[in-house]
């Protein structure tokens, strides 16, 4: 079987390092906001090219805390892509604001800058571009739009560890960028974890307060915060994984290139969701689009090739957002993507022969389904 994700295999080469870090923390007696968190924050800031990184409990908290640190809340509105993991929309609601969906591009899956509101209403305070599947959004056009209308940019980089845009880290193009370290991510913890990167020291200080009950000093609370601290144990594991992230991302790029070349003759039948030309994707996922997606998935499953769908239901069609309304056409591309996208196996647990086998299976299946 070709597994979509095999975390046992991913962690096997680093088992001794992970166990050593665990033993060191167990012996230290310091389990919350200790030396491992400090080390990881400093190293992740350098990795992303940011001035500071703030570790938090998970990716959703990272987004909602980022918005709160910018004083975005009740009565405000935030522009979000119409197609994304639900956490993007939920984070806006968690901050007390209202998500306003913007259509996405079928080719990239990311927010389509040409479909942004010509003149956002006065309640719109921020825009949250998502670097979906690890591929940067069009940050030039989004940045220009944000500057014209006085909006803050909070980038959802949950899947974009190591992605670059115009040969710069994707975080350079946002006021704040947020990351998830869910175990399946390129940089994954052994549980939930997240981080926020920022170049403003004042915002970083406020984020550290907000994640820790609104406190700079124990039992002194300057504002109403929450409990969303990066766990010391997860920080230790992330320090191990970070040592190997560049090498693992290079493997992902090679596999994505292999897929792209092998599947190119199927264009029009099987299309790839691709990053913009001036960017380097982190290739968290390799995603194709196929009108007969469900039939293709069934065939690949029969051939013991695990695939997944990211995501089978557009946010607008989730019961959680049934109360929301939008203009006609806003969600058309999101629904098209939800009906056609399929994620193929990708990652350091696979070898070249695995990728070739998947390519052969997709090609043969596509021919059978469409001829």
Automatic annotation (TrEMBL):
<protein>
    <submittedName>
        <fullName>dTDP-4-amino-4,6-dideoxygalactose transaminase</fullName>
    </submittedName>
</protein>
<comment type="similarity">
    <text>Belongs to the DegT/DnrJ/EryC1 family.</text>
</comment>
<feature type="active site" description="Proton acceptor">
    <location>
        <position position="185"/>
    </location>
</feature>
<dbReference type="GO" id="GO:0000271">
    <property type="term" value="P:polysaccharide biosynthetic process"/>
</dbReference>
<feature type="modified residue" description="N6-(pyridoxal phosphate)lysine">
    <location>
        <position position="185"/>
    </location>
</feature>
<dbReference type="GO" id="GO:0008483">
    <property type="term" value="F:transaminase activity"/>
</dbReference>
<dbReference type="InterPro" id="IPR015421">
    <property type="entry name" value="PyrdxlP-dep_Trfase_major"/>
</dbReference>
<keyword id="KW-0663">Pyridoxal phosphate</keyword>
<dbReference type="Pfam" id="PF01041">
    <property type="entry name" value="DegT_DnrJ_EryC1"/>
</dbReference>
<dbReference type="InterPro" id="IPR000653">
    <property type="entry name" value="DegT/StrS_aminotransferase"/>
</dbReference>
<dbReference type="GO" id="GO:0030170">
    <property type="term" value="F:pyridoxal phosphate binding"/>
</dbReference>
<dbReference type="InterPro" id="IPR015422">
    <property type="entry name" value="PyrdxlP-dep_Trfase_small"/>
</dbReference>
<dbReference type="InterPro" id="IPR015424">
    <property type="entry name" value="PyrdxlP-dep_Trfase"/>
</dbReference>
